[in-house]
Amino acid sequence: MLTLYDSRLSLNCYKVRLLLSLLGVPYIRQPVDIRKGEHRTPDLLARNPFGQIPVLDTGAVALRDSQAILVWLARRHGDARWMPTQPEDEALVNAWLAASAYELRLGPYEARLRKLAPALCVTGDAVDTQQRNTARALELFEHRLRDRQWLALDHPTVADIAAFPSLAHASDGDVDLSACPAILGWLERVRALPGFVGLMA
């Protein structure tokens, strides 16, 4: 049985829980209270020396980094629709995984952290930098989704799951998506996927 070390409000943890649910994979959930420093206990550091969550313990290996976990889950419990093996398609999915880890992380994800956990912000006190990053990220994702249903391919992939939490919860950081109809439509398509669960599920 898989064990997921996570925090309910963490968007990186949420994307893993979301894919687990979409794939119908059973798992044990082990809550970690970051405010109490539980992510830096000897037990968790033995699983992830970076001192971060999520961590997915497979019984054979402890996986760290939400993007890496999504890829592993898709390969092990999903099929090639979620994470393709054909090189061109795989490259497209990886490119949008990277955009979630960089552009969204420094934009809407950071805006949410600024309100909920400012000590975790990577841009420090540079609110204007975070706002510019957010505007740039929204522009890129809106442009990509303007004439297509899904981010990477013509069906949902792990790229969509990786991007969903930051954009679905952008309002937590006072980021307004009203000028992004393509993103809003895509968010509804993700929510309509069988097995979808929300952040607080």
Structure description:
The chain is an alpha+beta fold. It is built from eight helices and four strands; from the N terminus they run E-H-E-H-E-E-H-H-H-H-H-H. It has a four-stranded mixed beta sheet, with helices on one face. Strand 3 (55-57) and strand 4 (62-64) form a beta hairpin. Helix 1 packs across helix 7, helix 4 packs parallel to helix 7 and helix 6 (127-145) packs across helix 8 (181-191). The longest helix is centred in the middle third of the chain and has 20 residues, at 87-106. The protein is globular, with a radius of gyration of 16 Å. The model has no long low-confidence stretch (mean pLDDT 94).
Helix proportion: 40-55%
**Rg, Cα atoms, Å:** 16 Å
- Which class best fits the helix and strand makeup? alpha+beta
Tally of DSSP helical segments: 8
Strand order of the largest sheet: 2-1-3-4
Low-confidence stretches: none
Straight-line N-to-C gap: 20 Å
Q: Which shape, going by the Cα principal axes? A: globular
Order of helices and strands: EHEHEEHHHHHH
Oligomer: single chain
Number of strands: 4
Which percent range describes the beta-strand content? 5-15%
Report the biggest beta sheet as strand number plus sense, adding barrel if it closes: 4 strands, mixed
Average pLDDT figure? 94
